[in-house]
Known about the structure:
Number of helices: 8
Number of domains: 1
Helix content: over 70%
Order of helices and strands: HHHHHHHEEH
Largest sheet: 2 strands, antiparallel
Number of strands: 2
Strand content: under 5%
Strand order of the largest sheet: 1-2
Shape: elongated
Oligomer: single chain
Amino acid sequence: MGFLVFFVFLFIWLYRPVKNLGKERQVKTKWLVGAVLLTAIPGFAVIIGFEFLGGYLMQALSLQGVLKCLFDAFITAALIEEGFKYLIARPLLKPSQAQRRIDVIFMFMAVGLGFEIIESLLGLFTDSTILVGLIRGVFCSHVFWQMYMGAHYYDYRAAKAQGDKRTAHRELARALLVPFFLHGMNDFSIFFLETQIIEEGEEFVPGPYCELALIIFLVYFVANIVFMVRTLKMVNREATHARIEAEEARAALALEQAEEAVPENE
Length: 266
């Protein structure tokens, strides 16, 4: 449950100090908890249902080897799961009063956390390998993908409100396609590498494309770390901006109250 600790750490470090900027812009913690639960509960059915459907389609299409890995990674996993998280997060923004970019980011992150929790719990009772468990524990992937999706969905919404259709379409494409591609590559690099580690008796023998699979896995590993660092920096900038905005709002309010109090003292 390292991803849960990571989310709580980010919440306390970055979001809690700037969460309440004016009563009308407050996103209550219960909405973040609700987003986690609303994702986790139906997420269970999504994972079970679409893994069964994906397995059926792969058998029907007689997919094997690399094609099976690609289909499983990009269709069964990335397309369905990223689409599901987007459809859960989007309707929660209005009732939760998520108006600032940092608010939208954390609402999407809460959805990612809910999915991460249910996927990891299911992994304990399925045939998930040590490699899959290690990647999930280290990367907190769903949380990071939702950070990115939330930031660019906010940019899409802002551009749409301003009537800038070109920017709006670009930002929506970034919000949906980048997490989809990263998710697909994440799963493909793992699935492909696993197919190239063949168990023979008590020994593991490298498959014919083991070196290629290892290179793909390592390249994605490094690229994902770069993505995580850049995304964290982006969220930190948004938190800093919100903190400055909060301080300016409090200073303006204090000045206004002081000016109103002057005639009374006279």
